[in-house]
Amino acid sequence: MGYATTILSLAGLNVLFALSVYITFAIGQFSLAQVGFWALGAYGTAMLTTLWGWPLWPALLASGGVCALLGIALGYPCLRLRGFYLALATLGFSETVRVLFQNLEYQIPLKGVPSGPSGVLGFRNVAVTTGIWDIFGFMLVLVILLVWLNHSRIGLAVAATREDDVVAPFMGINIVFAKVAAFMLAAMAAGIGGGLYAGFTSYISPDDFGFHMTLLGILFVAIGGTRTFYGPMLAAAILTVLPEFFRFLAEYRLIFYGALVVVLMTLRPRGLIDERVDAAVRRWFARKPREA
Amino acid sequence: MLSIEHVSKAFGGLVALDEVSFHVTGGEIVGLIGPNGSGKTTCVNTISGLYKPTSGRVDLDGSPLSVLPAHRIVRRGVGRTFQNLRLLRELSVLDNIRVAQGARVRSIATWCGFGPQAEGLDLEADALRLLEKVGLRGRADALAGKLSYGQQKRLEVARALATRPRFVLLDEPAGGMNVDDIDTLKQLMRAMRDEGIGLLLIEHNMSFVMDVCDRLIVLNFGKKLAEGSPAEIRNHSEVIDAYLGRA
Amino acid sequence: MLLEDLINGLLFGATYSLVAIGFTLIFGVIHRLNIAHGATIMVSAYAGAAVSILLGGKSYGALLAAFVASVTTGATLGILIERVAFRPLKDAGYLAPFATTAGITIILEELFLKLSRVVPIFHPEYTPFPSPLEDLSFHAGPIYLRGVYVVIFIVAIALMAALGFWVDRTRSGRAMRTVEQNPLVARLMGIDVGRVELTAFAVASGLAGAAGCLIGVSVGTVGPFMGTNLLMISFVVIVLGGLGSIRGAMVGGLVVGVVESMTVSLLSARYKQAVLFGLLFLVLVIRPEGLLARRAVVRD
Predict the structure, then answer these.
(1) What is the ipTM of this complex?
(2) Please, what's the b/e burial string for A7-27 (b: 16 or more CB within 10 A of its CB; e: otherwise)?
(3) What is the pTM of this model?
(4) Chain A positions with Cβ closer than 8 Å to B
(5) CATH code 3.40.50.300 for B2-77+165-244
């Protein structure tokens, strides 16, 4: 696979992750569960494609579907949690998933070689089934969905719930449904993203899905801005592609990465796409005159 | 008719409402008054669904309201304003109305759509008319957070009206208003009453209450103390005692 | 045996208390989470280890010097973090400092990963933290207690007592409590809120440094990613004790120490994390404000 394709694919995967984290932020929930769903999707898809020969998309939809159901199951108890506590509970979920895979040993012989998840050692030789168009195709679907939701009445209800979920019910909004639906959608997006990730890297291990991935998710929405879906997308793309230009820094790359994060955040405290940029973009798109 | 029957509300050991009963019919303005801490806001919060009553029931035309979640109560036609203004400050004035109009939307297809026309309703035109009524038509695109205090209070009322309620609970709508704004508010409330809406008003501004209300209900320490016309209440000895702290 | 594990867990739990107290102290004053708290512990632990190694590592003098090095490193780093990651972002919402402290964590962890490979007295992966306490042990009847655990417990309790004294009895401590409850009123009373915040950071990070030294000594090694693990554990502690509550963090740390120790002896070390986070989940679902919080959230 060419270098450019690899980088674009990685960027695409990070963008998908950023989108899945954004979805719950959009409705005002600070959830870190998407890492857990990404892991579930990765292992689920990897097992289906590698061990049982499923084609990519049925495997993705199956794992994504399971994640969606789990997202609903997780969303309900999380309704009563706010802010830091919600972040912690969802972090707890993701960590529990990781520990689960640290202890999962399930191997069947493939062409004489035992293959499958082997606990801490991870899952080697996952079938490489993800192509760059799978990643960008799914991204396009998500983006279209988000744009559509944004412009419909649902988008208004989401913005209202996010801004003030105490008054939102008094405007007729069923916030329980809205929040659980957001959890479900985020879980499904993360599940499919994780599956695409597994089919791309061909080696997954529980350590991939730990606290550092959680930090990454937070970085994407913090740097990108939580007002729009394209902010975190942009942040994910920049944070994936930019370090490539600094490959010459070798082992200092990650230090540079951390410094980049601090600098970006200090320059744009409300994110790359903050209220002003968002308003300007909206104005640009709404250039037709208003009917009186 | 909105009927509150023997409603009690306790928070742990604290009894905020104690067997309160009264009713509100369409086309009247009822004032809910009483000293601080008498349970007025708790009463409104319980009727509107923010709290569930510990005992007793709230009915709308005979069917139970208190078992429903808040958003369903709004859809049945009971709207409210908040004393400390819960506007969506980051959204435009018009968007605040649009969100509230969602309470009138019945089908999923409408939720998914973009158009102002839906289910035979011209929601956009309604929204603009509503803003016209409260005098905010010219500020339709301004951010709600940037309005003056008086304008925000009017938007709060308009937002409640956008849900097409049959009853509106107003929690201290006149607080902090100047004389002109108060007059506008009185006109607005009378117009609502004349359209057949029933209003329940919590207010400390006594001259406002006496002028605009058809009927008064007095609470003290969570219990209903008295009920009657403004003239009757004004001279009611127990009410006077309660306000002066002699009760 | 069980009682032994329980007591050892309790003793070690005091270090968790120290870590969590620092974290919750910062939150109480500025209402933001310092994700770099873990990295602060790690850097301070390395500082202590370095001093101990350079001084031979076998005398109590070396240990004391190492402790002082850890505490001062922690406090200094804390002040730096406050200036770089929090002060410039005062009006930027809660997410921004999350990101900057995460960035700082990445920088520090990678830096020490590199240093541990390059600096001669360090080792890649795990650098030993020598101390005269390694071979110390006590026997209380049939129970065997590692001397190290007893010592760190005593030091930790002493530090917490000192903190309690500072918070309750001194002027600066009371100023800090005022800022905690109402920053605006504090300002109106003439309290220099900026200085209180800086002090809180210095104290909290100094405690983190102390914890780093104590943990390094009792575990025997330090590593570049030790901070992250400790941070996660302190999350559990804080949920148990209630966010912002120092006393809650104190008790919560001991509880977590016991739970961890019991899990390792009754089940296996592999399930340590799962049990702790399962516990966190349970507590959050049943009583979100923390087991030890005095005021229950009015749920209606």
Answers:
(1) 0.89
(2) ebbbbbbbbbbbbbbbbbbbb
(3) 0.89
(4) 148, 151-154, 156-157, 159-160, 163-164, 166-176, 275, 290-291
(5) yes
